[in-house]
Amino acid sequence: MPTYDFICNQCNQRFDIFQTFSEYGKQPVHCAHCGSNNVRRRMTKVRIAKSNDSRMESMTAGINNLEALEKDPQALGQMMRKMSSEMGEDLPPEFDDVVDRLEAGQSPEEIESALPDLGHGDE
User: Fold this and answer.
1) Which of 21, 32, 59, 110 has the fewest other C-beta atoms within 10 Å?
2) Each residue's pLDDT tens digit, 91-114
């Protein structure tokens, strides 16, 4: 059964429901958190299937010299943003913070000293 994503207009919580294609639009939907029927369908990202080779080619297009990226934090940040877009996966907010800092011209060393706990989970 397909999963449909909704947002409750009453409590602003997200929730998923499973319905068959024939049930969708005919069965009433109620919030899984508060029970309200004041809900709206949440549009999710559209993903396009690519082969691994195609994905890698897209990620590395225009990168001729990886060593040059070490000296150019802005280019490194742009490459990282492009790679995350090609992967199509949700990354933690820390990733965006690091990429924003790189694109602003901060070196990886400066970022590491400013965010010493980065990459060290609660494991």
Assistant:
1) 21
2) 787 888 888 989 898 888 888 888
Q: What is the C-alpha separation between 7 and 40, in angstroms, rounded?
A: 6
Say yes or no: 11 and 57 in one domain.
no
CATH number at residue 17: 2.20.28
In the DSSP assignment, the letter for residue 18 is E
CA dihedral sign of residues 61, 67, 70, 74: negative
User: For the chain, what is the domain count?
Assistant: 2
Say if residue 35 is in the same domain as residue 77.
no
Strand ranges (E), 9-86: 14-18, 39-41
- Whether 22 is covered by a domain: the verdict is yes
Q: Rounded to whole angstroms, how far apart are CA atoms 104 and 78?
A: 10
Give the pair of three-digit tokens for residue 82.
Answer: 């492009």
Cα–Cα distance measured from residue 101 to residue 103, given in angstroms and rounded to the nearest whole number: 5
Q: Which domain holds residue 88?
A: 52-114
**pTM for the full predicted model:** 0.45
Cβ atoms of 86 and 52 within 8 Å: the answer is: no
